[in-house]
Amino acid sequence: MNSEKCIWLFTAALTAAVISEAKVVLSDDFSTYSAGKPIGNGNWKPKWVSEISSQQGLFTAHEDGYAVLSGSAERAYHIPYQTGFIIRPGQSVTLSADFRYTYVGGGAIDEYRNSKVFGLQLSTAPNWYNGKRTDLCLSNRGEAMGFVLPSDPWVEGWIPHKTLGIDLNKETTGEWLHFECNVYDRDGELAATMTVSAEGFPAYTTKEFPLGLPVGSVVYPGFTTGWSSAKSCIREYARIAEVHMDNFSVQTDSAALQLVKAPPPKVKPARPQVSTLGLVL
Fold it and tell me: How confident is the model over 217-226, as pLDDT tens digits?
């Protein structure tokens, strides 16, 4: 956990926990990973394209206790958590995390405005390459950030970069944003709302949106850059040099929420060796 993070984030989270008596069932504050090393092969399974070296090892640990996603990450760079949950009738969960970003500079973008850049994701699979997925992302709207609903291309909200401490004319790292997604049973189908907040800026909550999944579905949370029409990395199409993530958490006040661990990867059986005498070893 980043020790310099604003106290208001901790206070808000603590207050919410006391009021709702929610139980944390999944969490990661990224304080136990080796600084500068890729995060994976454990709680997280980031995208890894074997034939494209630029899309390998982009999700790393920072020495101050948070995760860093490189600006070299392209669209649809998914980072699923390896434990999911099942929401039964009447149950709900709250998925949350903190984000901030470093802007490259060079002024506001003109092309690819409203394209997804970073955020949370909900997927029916623990792998980055398959599953039905819902992106809960912010987009760069030029002078501000906005929230892209699952019914995109519509974009809601207007969070000016300068409100987050970003100077569009030079490389700057902004203040932390807090994402909170509430997922619940709505007449047998999963629905959600999303709230984005920052110090000194009114919290913005989206309208309710469906996830297109029935109650009882396995859902794996995680991070993503989301899909966009831009065929390049987020540094090029959104001028985001890197994204920082911290305080990932899944909470619930529902009794007996079922957790589902991703199955271990299949190991190919070793090929039999043949000795010089023609015997199978």
Answer: 999 999 999 9
Three-state secondary structure call for residue 110:
coil
Q: Residue by residue, what is the 3-state secondary structure of 260-272? A: EECCCCCCCCCCC
Q: In residues, how long is the chain?
A: 281
What token pair was written down for 111? Answer: 């092309």
pLDDT by residue (tens digit) across 105-130?
Answer: 999 999 999 999 999 999 999 999 99
The rounded distance, in Å, linking the Cα atoms of 19 and 22 is: 8
Distance of CA 130 to the CA centre of its chain: 16
Q: Output DSSP code: residue 77.
A: -
Name the residue with tokens 């984030």.
Answer: 9
Q: Which residues contact 41 (CB under 8 A, 6 or more apart)?
A: none
Strands 177-186 and 92-103, bridge-based pairing: antiparallel
- pTM here is 0.87
What's the whole-number mean pLDDT along residues 227-239?
93
Strands (E), the chain: 23-28, 59-61, 67-70, 78-80, 83-86, 92-103, 115-123, 133-140, 144-148, 155-160, 172-173, 177-186, 189-198, 201-205, 209-214, 218-224, 240-252, 258-261
